[in-house]
Write a structure and sequence with these properties.
By secondary structure, the chain is mainly alpha-helical. Helix content is about 45%, strand content about 10%. It has 19 helices and 11 strands. The strands form 5 sheets. It has a 3-stranded antiparallel sheet with strand order 3-4-7. It has a two-stranded parallel sheet with strand order 1-2. The termini are far apart. The structure holds one RNA strand of 75 nucleotides.
Length: about 475
RNA sequence: GGCCCCUUAGUCUAGUGGUUAGGACGUCGGCCUCUCACGCCGAAAGCAUGGGUUCAAGUCCCGUAGGGGUCACCA
């Protein structure tokens, strides 16, 4: 088996989309698995919609996901440039070579003429195919014109897709597509082929929405005299309503998920499981993915994007990181939340107790506000727990902590435990008022953890504040 | 509408002719417990449909229905 050369070839018209990210991921995984090459090519021939910001957004998104490319923008490579708009000479040369061989021709039909023909076909409920009006006209270099590929008539095209199996396209549905615009910019079906040929791509793995382009492209490969690569068409990702995933289904760009506090490991992990599996395993390290991934085992059915499961995967990843690492990753989110967090033992402790209580880094950074700022006491919690009856309890806890030189989990457990026992109370009767005093609410990490994270001085201050509140 | 593709619980999936149809998310119930969460245990929930082929079909074939894709000087 030859080593695969794969590519991800996005058009820079927006951010890196979840669907595009998965396509890139599958290409990357297979390249890494098989020891092949992963190429990034920017298909920016749609000048209306392509932007430099979008290029940057795509590069950023790929890097965030950890999908590095061996050839492409910013890293270069032997088959560059990797922006289509910098390769126009190449497309022109190849297109004219086909014209010279009688395999393509100049077409001077106007847009208006073509639109009228299409309109009429629709009125007659008939499929429209370009009738070949200019097919036999000789090349006239003085005219501004597009170049169309001369499709061999009524020739069925068959190929075996790595994920969908044998596929056939009836020749009667193929038409003489435009391959080069009148301004010399190629169309997708031509630019992609010329690039894949010249970049020596031998495995084209792309979205399902390109299956119908494949037959035409195969004819181009053949006309050009190059070997046809293998194809793998990856099923689409749908929204909850089974329609193709789009903005109206919510966030679709990978950077949006980054901003929501997802780990790149989790996004990769979730996306790879859409259409691929390895036994019953749900959580995969990057190394495992590279080891286990098999393009041929990708399923052929479209899958619905499920944000809840992705959140669960993220949660699993959050829990699997060491507290130090989690703190490091979460720091920017704490700062974005306006909290005076900094790397150190405190943030590490917050990360430790927060991991199992958070689905995202944003949740982690925002639900423990009271560990960094004075708590806002919930009125209902106050009414229920900061009562006159609780006062002596709180006072005793306060005094007990004050009397402990260097509180730790064991000493606190003994303190609160003995206090409850001596009064014949369940631990909860003591812990809840303390919790409200320290956090402002009734739900928090373990009370000993809270005290230790706040520190002796701050805990005492908050208990004092609560005591005044009762009085 | 033409052409192409797809069809296992609400969702992601395992399953390559003989399984009590397995796992996961979500949902519901219980246990654990200082609250929340985590964890653990358990439950409900599935082969779209009609015909074939076969001793035997979720698995193979055909039809139907449903869904998706695509029909540009977009990609």
């Amino acid at each position: 088996m030859t080593t695969p050369r794969l590519r991800f070839a996005p058009s820079p018209t927006g951010t890196l989309h979840i669907g595009g990210a998965r396509t890139a991921l599958f290409n990357w995984l297979w390249a890494r698995h098989a020891g092949g090459t992963f190429i990034l090519r920017i298909e920016d021939t749609d000048r209306e919609r392509s932007t430099g910001e979008a290029v940057q957004a795509i590069l950023d998104g790929l890097r965030w996901l950890g999908l590095d490319w061996d050839e492409g923008p910013e890293v270069g490579g032997p088959h560059g440039p990797y922006f289509q708009m910098q390769r126009l000479d190449l497309y022109r040369e190849y297109a004219h070579r086909l014209v010279g061989q009688g395999k393509a021709y100049g077409c001077t039909c106007t847009r208006e003429e073509l639109d009228a023909q299409r309109e009429q076909a629709r009125a007659e409920k008939r499929q429209y195919l370009y009738p070949g009006t200019c097919r036999d006209k000789p090349w006239d270099p003085s005219r501004r014109q597009v170049i169309r590929f001369k499709v061999p008539k009524l020739r069925e095209v068959t190929f075996t897709d790595l994920v969908k199996g044998p596929l056939t396209r009836p020749g009667s549905t193929l038409q003489d597509e435009v391959i080069l615009r009148s301004d010399g910019v190629p169309l997708y079906n031509f630019g992609a082929v010329v690039d894949d040929v010249t970049m020596k791509v031998n495995l084209v793995a792309r979205g399902d929405d390109h299956v119908n382009n494949t037959a035409f492209q195969i004819l181009i490969y053949e006309a050009l005299g190059y070997p046809v690569p293998a194809f793998a068409h990856l099923p689409m990702i749908l929204g909850a309503d089974k329609a193709r995933l789009s903005k109206r289904h919510g966030a679709t760009s990978v950077t949006a998920y980054r901003d929501m506090g997802f780990l790149p490991e989790a996004v990769v992990n979730y996306l790879v499981r859409l259409g691929w599996s390895h036994g019953d395993q749900e959580i995969f390290t990057r190394e495992e993915l590279v080891r286990f991934f098999d393009l041929a085992k990708v399923g052929a059915t479209a899958s619905v994007f499920n944000p809840e499961k992705m959140a669960w995967v993220n949660h699993m990843w959050l829990k699997s990181l060491s507290p130090d690492e989690l703190a490091r990753r979460a720091l920017p989110y704490f700062l974005a939340a306006g909290l005076p967090a900094e790397l150190g033992p405190k943030l590490t402790s917050v990360a430790r107790v927060g991991a199992e209580r958070s689905k995202t880094l944003v949740e982690l950074a925002t639900q423990f506000r009271y560990l960094f700022e004075p708590p806002v006491v919930d009125p209902k919690a106050r009414a229920k727990f900061l009562t006159p009856e609780a006062r002596p309890l709180l006072q005793a806890v306060r005094d007990g902590i004050a009397a402990t030189a260097d509180p730790d989990a064991a000493s606190l457990e003994k303190l609160l435990g003995d206090l409850a026992a001596s009064r014949g109370l369940a631990l909860g009767k003591v812990a809840q008022p303390v919790r409200v005093a320290l956090t402002g609410g009734t739900a928090s990490p373990g009370i000993y953890d809270v005290i230790l994270i706040l520190g002796k001085a701050e805990a005492l201050a908050r208990l004092d504040a609560a005591l005044t509140l009762i009085a």
